[in-house]
Amino acid sequence: MEQVARKTGWSDQWDHMRTPAPVPPAGERAGAEERTADLCGISLMHLRGDGTRLERPEGGAGCRHIILLVQLDGSCTVAHRQSTVHLSAGDVTLLDSERYFTLETSTGSSQMLGYIPFAEVMYGIPSAALPSPRRMESDDALAALAAPLMASLAQQMNRLDGEGGRCARQLLVELTRGLINRQRQRPVLVEPIPDPRVRHFIDAHLADPDLNPANIASGCNISVRRLHRIFSTTPWSACGWIRKERLERCRRDLTDPALSDLSVTQIAFRWGFNDAAHFSRAFRSAYGESPSEARRAVDAPRYADIPRAVLRARLEESGSARP
After folding, report:
1. How far is CA 273 from CA 9, 93, 225, 245, 266, in A?
2. Over 60: is that where the pLDDT of 116 sits?
3. In a 3-state reduction of DSSP, which class is residue 133?
4. Is-contact 100 80, C-beta < 8 A?
5. Which of residues 210 and 117 earns the better pLDDT score?
6. CATH number corresponding to 5-185
7. Neighbouring-strand partners of residue 77
8. Where are the domains of the chain?
9. pLDDT digits (tens, 9 = 90+) for 255-295
10. Crossing angle for the helix pair 238-254 and 196-205, nearest 10 degrees?
11. Which one-letter DSSP state was computed for residue 321?
12. How far apart are CA 111 and CA 152, in angstroms?
């Protein structure tokens, strides 16, 4: 295991890590400390910050990872393009290293992050099933296991090597897989549009590529200003809601075996998109993978059913297997 590194301030790039970590915008470096280590191929980061804001850009070089983030002390806010998560001590969330997010910490807060290779934790799980970040509270059974484990790793970062490190690594991978499955079983509760007329009109006209605030307002016999006031009580704008609903319908159809004869473009156009490239970018931004990847993942074999030799060969191809 690598020697723990201590720094004051944030580096622009963490070259010693296997994937780019969140970095702060220029000028926001004070009051932060990082400790990093390698756990048999899993990058660990213990972050301490006083009012620090970090930003993780879209995409990234190197291998894709699932980031297990545990709030150890204080609080932080993780903002994704489609959701905002507030974490208190003991809370847990999962992040995709290829998806944009920001992390804002409170004074005296600390977090522990584990970068687990995507291929190991998502094998046999449809990638489209990975939801946007959400809070798993400390009273959740699996979160209650993750929090003390990560806290212990934060204290033992320079001591877990050999058999102990390998056991801790395996436990971390399996726990992360369990948390992903737990999230899949708990759909995100999205605050509905308070006016049923607006909600029903949008649902009935999602396939219309010309659907916009003006014709929604006209169809519901309200002003555009009134429409925007209705949406001001939700996390969405009118256009943002339309886009979200269209993407959800497309993802549902892409993962439906009964619609496998339809092309990705046909499904996109079916729900009001009129530009295949724009749809692909919007889908990747929302779900962290391309529409084609989401469709292929549906038929992925279960992790446990793959012979160990075959699994190891595939992990080595992705660069995720340890020596």
Report:
1. 44, 32, 25, 12, 10
2. yes
3. coil
4. yes
5. 210
6. 2.60.120.280
7. 86, 104
8. 5-185, 196-234+236-297
9. 888 888 999 999 999 999 999 999 999 888 777 778 988 88
10. 50
11. S
12. 12
111 touches 70 (CB < 8 A) = yes
- % of the chain at pLDDT higher than 70: 71
The secondary structure of 137-200 as a DSSP string is -TTSHHHHHHHHHHHHHHHSTTT--HHHHHHHHHHHHHHHHHHHHHHHHS---PPPPS-HHHHH
For residue 46, what is the enclosing H or E element?
Answer: strand 42-49
* Spatial contact of 55 and 23, defined as CB atoms under 8 Å apart: yes
- Phi, psi angles (nearest 5°) of residue 184: -65, -30
| 5-185 against 196-234+236-297: fold identical | no
Our separate counts of H helices and E strands in the chain read: 11, 10
CATH, domain 196-234+236-297, list 1.10.10.60, 3.30.360.10, 3.20.20.300, 3.40.630.30? 1.10.10.60
Q: CA-CA distance, 188 to 64, in Å (whole number)?
A: 24
Tallying the residues shown for the chain, one arrives at 323
Q: Average pLDDT of the chain? A: 75
